[in-house]
Amino acid sequence: MAAAPTKETTYRFIGSWAVQSRMFEYAVELYRRGRQRCGDAMLFTNDIAYLYGIMLNYPEATKEYISLLAGNPAQLPYVQNRIAQYTGKPEGLQAATTVVEQAAARTASDQSLQRLLAWLYMEAKDFGKAYEVYTAIDARANAGGKELFAFAERALRERAYSAASKAYATIMSTHPQFEAIAQTKFGYARTLEELDVERDSTAPFVPSEARPETERMSLYAPAVAAYDKVLAGYPTLEVAARARFRVATIQYERYGDLDAARSTLETLLKEGTQFPQVMTDAHLLLSEVLLVQGDLDRAATHDAAVAGKPPYIGEQRERAAFRLAEIDYFAGRFKESLEKLADLTRNPTADATNDALGLKIFIEENRKNSEEGLREYAKADLLLRQRKLSEAAGRFTSILTTYAGSDLVDETLLSVASAYARMGRFQDAAAAYERLAADYPESIALDRALLQLGRVYALGLHDTPKAIAAYDKLLEKFPNSIYVSEARRRARELRGDTP
Can you tell me the distance from the alpha carbon of 264 to that of 245, in angstroms, rounded to the nearest whole number? Predict the structure, then answer.
C-alpha cells in the first residue's frame, strides 16, 4: 500500500499545476500557505521568488532570494544568477538594489548580503559604492587586502579606473606586506595610466603628437613614476617586464618618442626572455616603432618572429601576419602582400580577417586600374603611418591631381582629410570630407567620412549644427553601417539629450 503524500508534496503538486495553468498569484498564495502549514519558513522560497520574478514584482522576488541566502550563504552565486534574470531591466536592478540596501543596513555583519550588495552596485556600474562595501568587507573579515584586491582587479577589467585606483591605493597604504603587493602596485600604475588617457581624450581636439612635449610628458609622469617603482622594487618578477612594456607604450603612443620606446623595448627583449607573453607584446610594439621610423626590414623580422608560418591561429599571430602583409604593401610588393592576405582571409572568424579583406580588395581593385597610382598611394599611406603628416598630405594632394579619374580618389580624400585633422588644419579636413560626400555619394568610404566630418566639426571647429547634420546624414544614408551606434551617441550628446 502506497504511503500517503506529505503536506509538502501535496502543496508542491497543486502549486505546480497552478504554475502550468499560469495562475501565478494563486500559486504564490498556495506556497505561502504551505510554508505556514508545514512549519518551515524556508519552504518554497525558490519557487515563490521565481514566480514573483515572472510577475515583475522584483522587490518581493529579491526578498525571497535574501531569505534563501540567509539560510545558506554558500548560495550566493546561485542567488546572483537568479537575480540577474531581471537586473538587466533598469526597474529590476533598482528594485533589487533598494531591497538589498535596506537588508544590508539592518545586518551589516552579514558578509554574503554585503557581497550581494556590492555585486548589484557593480551591475549598475557604480564601482564607487562597491568600493566602499568591499572596504568594509575586507576589514570585517580581516582579509588583509584580499577582498579589495579581487575588487580592484575586476574594476580594472571593467574600466572603472577611479574605483580600482582607490582600492589599489588602500591596499598599498594599509597592507604593505600584502602577498600580492607587486601586482597591486602594477595595477595601481595601470589605473594611473588609464585615468591619464581619459583626461587626454577629453582635451581639445588636438592629436598628442601636435602638443608640446612638456605637456604630453607631464600628463603621464605619475603613471611612468609608478611603473618605475615596480621596476625598481621587483626586477625579477613578470610585473617588472609588464611595467617596462607599459612605459614603452607610453613613450610611443603618448610622448611620440620613438627612440626612447625602441630602446626600452630592446632592453625588455634582452632581459625578459623568461616571460613569453610579454616578449610577444614587445616584438609587436617594436615592429610598429620600427615601421614608423622607416626600418621596414627590421620591423618585418620582429613580426615574423611572432607570426610563424600559416595557418595563423591566435590574435597576436594574426596581427603580426597582417603587419607583414602591410609592409609588403607599403613597399609596393603587391603580389607578396596579396599572398599573405589570402592566408589571413581563409579564416572568417579571425580577428584580423576584416582588415585583411579590406586591404586585399583595395589592392586588387586599384592594381587593375593603375598600379603606379596604387604605388604612389602606398608611399603616402606609409608617410601617414609614420606621422609625417605634411609630407603625406602633399603626396595625397598630388595623387588627387595626377590620378583624378581613378578609383583611388575617394580613399585619397579620406586620407588627406585625416592628415589635415591631425595637423590641426580643421577647415581643410572638413573641406576634403565634404568634397568626398558631394562628389562620391556612392563611395564605400562615405560612412567613415561622415563620422569623421562630424568629429571635426564638433571638436575641431566647434560647429555643433554642422556636426549634428553630418551624423544625421550618416544615420539616414547608412542605417546598417557599423558606425551607426557611435554616430547616434555623438549626435545625442551634442543635442544634450543623452539618457
Answer: 8
Among 137, 219, 134, 233, smallest CA distance to 181 is for 233
Tell me which residue of 361, 369, 365, 367 sits closest to 344, measured CA to CA. 361
pLDDT tens digits along 249-300: 999 998 889 999 999 999 999 998 899 999 999 999 999 999 999 999 999 9
The set of residues, in sequence order, having a beta carbon less than 8 Å from that of 403 and lying 6+ positions away, is: 370, 373, 376, 409, 412
Between CA 314 and CA 322, with CA 316 as vertex, the angle to 5 degrees is 100
* DSSP code of residue 371: H
Cβ-contact 110, 116 below 8 angstroms: no
Backbone angles phi and psi of 193, in degrees to 5: -60, -45
- Provide the Cα torsion 432, 434, 435, 438; round to 10°: 160
Of 388, 381, 312, 394, the residue nearest 345 (C-alpha): 312
> Are the CB atoms for 257 and 280 separated by under 8 Å?
no
Single-letter residue type at 493: E
Helices and strands per DSSP (H, E), number in the chain: 26, 0
Alpha-carbon distance of 368 to 268, in angstroms, equals 44
32-85 pLDDT tens trace: 887 888 877 777 788 888 888 888 999 999 998 999 898 899 999 999 999 999
Amino acid 209: pLDDT:
54
Distance CA 224, CA 420 (A): 31
- Residue 170, H or E segment: helix 161-174
d(CA 146, CA 174): 12
Interacting residues of 322 by C-beta distance below 8 A, sequence separation 6+: 340, 341, 344, 352, 355, 356, 359
